[in-house]
């Protein structure tokens, strides 16, 4: 059982929801990103999504698109992210979920990527644009290296597709709370409770909700509905707005502490 599975099992047993922050690796640079991961763990993160910068992040809104662009300008690659994970592992035991698009994995080679990601210390992968129907080789490569697979479910997913997604996810399902791309929102969707209940029933897995959760108040509400709460764009925006990048980890940690208190 890897760190992600173990953490979810622990939280479900005690009736608590997982706090899952997202950052883009390499924004503003890898050294600061690594400090931020450590700060997130120290301030209540249960799983950290470590984003692989990509040139065409079609599922992401402006905030994360711009973060990917800045990281790519820094020369950050998938190889660089895995080296970063290896350095993080010397400082942190936070469960790490790599967030990526499929093209970098295809170029790397699925089997080689899974081997190297596991050796670096990653615990799982969420590949945004790879549908489970076409993911057999990918899933087998991850499973052979004890990495958990996470797939996305959407408000438009049919019952049959939710069942397929549930079978493809080892630990939890990532539910997109609204249609469209990532980004902070002023409010939650009005039928979120019913939607989360349906996805849980049809997938048979714990549910983590993301897309649009940006405040402690929203995180608290979602924590009462789902087994996991994902906060990405609001945190990435905070990092981007921190003028003195040497303070980015401290700022991110302070925001994470607020979110963690609201969720727990």
Task: Briefly summarize what is shown.
This protein is of the alpha/beta class.
Task: Please describe what this structure looks like.
The relative contact order is 0.18. The chain has one domain (3-263): Alpha-Beta Barrel (TIM Barrel). The protein is α/β, with parallel strands linked by helices. It has helices spanning 3-13, 30-42, 62-73, 78-89, 102-108, 110-120, 136-144, 159-168, 192-203, 216-223, 233-241, 248-263; strands at residues 18-24, 48-51, 96-100, 124-127, 148-150, 152-153, 173-176, 207-210, 228-231. The protein has a nine-stranded parallel β-sheet. The protein has twelve helices and nine strands.
> Radius of gyration from the CA trace?
17 Å
- Write down how many β-strands occur, each being a DSSP E stretch of 2 or more residues: 9
**Spatial shape:** globular
List unreliable stretches of 5+ residues: none
Number of domains: 1
Order of helices and strands: HEHEHHEHHEHEEHEHEHEHH
Strand % is 5-15%
Task: Give the topology.
Layout: H1 3-13, E1 18-24, H2 30-42, E2 48-51, H3 62-73, H4 78-89, E3 96-100, H5 102-108, H6 110-120, E4 124-127, H7 136-144, E5 148-150, E6 152-153, H8 159-168, E7 173-176, H9 192-203, E8 207-210, H10 216-223, E9 228-231, H11 233-241, H12 248-263
Parallel strand pairs: 1-2, 1-9, 2-3, 3-4, 4-5, 6-7, 7-8, 8-9
């Amino acid at each position: 059982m890897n760190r992600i599975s173990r953490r979810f099992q622990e939280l479900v047993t005690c009736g608590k929801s997982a706090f899952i922050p997202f950052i883009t690796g390499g924004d503003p640079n890898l050294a600061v990103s690594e400090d931020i991961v450590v700060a997130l763990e120290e301030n209540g993160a249960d799983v950290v999504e470590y984003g692989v910068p990509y040139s065409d992040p079609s599922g992401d809104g402006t905030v994360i698109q711009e973060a990917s662009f800045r990281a790519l300008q820094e020369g950050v690659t998938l190889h660089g992210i895995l080296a970063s994970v290896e350095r993080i592992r010397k400082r942190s035991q936070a469960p790490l979920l790599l967030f990526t698009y499929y093209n970098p994995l295809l170029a790397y080679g699925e089997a080689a990527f899974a081997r190297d990601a596991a050796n670096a210390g990653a615990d799982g992968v969420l590949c945004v644009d790879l549908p489970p129907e076409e993911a057999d080789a990918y899933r087998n490569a991850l499973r052979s290296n004890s990495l958990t697979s996470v797939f996305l479910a959407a408000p438009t997913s049919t019952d049959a597709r939710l069942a397929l997604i549930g079978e493809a996810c080892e630990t939890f399902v990532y539910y997109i709370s609204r249609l469209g791309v990532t980004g902070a929102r002023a409010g939650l969707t009005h039928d979120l409770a019913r939607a989360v209940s349906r996805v849980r029933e049809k997938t048979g897995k714990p549910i983590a909700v993301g897309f649009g959760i940006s405040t402690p108040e929203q995180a608290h509400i979602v924590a009462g509905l789902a087994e996991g709460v994902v906060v990405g764009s609001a945190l990435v925006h905070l990092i981007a707005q921190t003028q003195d990048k040497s303070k980015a980890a401290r700022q991110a940690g302070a925001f994470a502490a607020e979110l963690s208190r609201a969720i727990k």
